[in-house]
Specification:
By secondary structure, the protein is of the alpha+beta class. It folds into 2 domains: 70 residues, Nuclear Transport Factor 2, Chain: A (Roll), CATH 3.10.450; 81 residues, Roll (Archaeosine Trna-guanine Transglycosylase, Chain: A, domain 4). A hairpin with a 5-residue loop joins strand 9 and strand 10. InterPro entries: CHP03684 (IPR022430), MCT-1/Tma20 (IPR016437), PUA (IPR002478), PUA-like_sf (IPR015947), Uncharacterised_CHP00451 (IPR004521). It comes from Halorubrum ezzemoulense DSM 17463. This is RNA-binding protein.
Length: 160
């Protein structure tokens, strides 16, 4: 991933990011330095928090935690939990299917960005877009979360 530009954010921009992430995921992003990174050929922009890729923007949406950011800041809302059988496929970037889901935040609405965590240790494996409301995610068949970013992809591996 080739960096197009990189700059420190103003305090009002940091406040907006912190408020948006708190609204979506119920977490407070605590950090000293916030840097905005724009890439040449990526469908997202990135915010480094103390040098770590913690927040990203997808399709000009509001800011949302990356997989690494979600594992650092432990989201309380917007979480879809999958069973052990789904870990390897979700970690490889597959969309999430109903049979693998054991629990989903009922406040999730179709179109929302969500974090996908595994049930045993609560580690976040991916970030995706909900295709149905949270109360309709658990079931027997069908795709319910489109994967956007996952463990091991370019964004996950990005470092400065």
């Amino acid at each position: 991933m080739e960096v197009k530009s990189r700059h420190h954010l103003r305090s009002d921009e940091i406040t907006a990011i912190r408020e948006a992430v708190a609204d979506h995921l119920g977490v407070d992003i605590d950090g000293e330095a916030f840097e905005f990174v724009e890439f040449v050929d990526a469908g997202y922009e990135l915010v480094l928090v103390d040098g770590d890729p913690a927040v990203f923007y997808v399709d000009d949406d509001e800011p949302f935690l990356t997989v690494r950011g979600a594992n650092d800041f432990d989201p309380e809302t917007g979480v879809v939990t999958v069973d052990a059988g789904a870990i390897s496929v979700v970690s490889d970037g597959a969309d999430v299917m109903r049979p693998g889901i054991v629990e989903a935040d009922e406040a999730i609405r179709a179109g929302d960005l969500v974090v996908i965590a595994e049930e045993t240790h609560g580690k976040v494996l991916a970030v995706g877009r909900a295709m149905v409301d949270g109360d309709a995610m658990v079931g027997d068949s069908g795709k319910v979360v489109e994967s956007i970013h996952h463990v091991g992809d370019d964004l996950y591996e990005f470092s400065v």
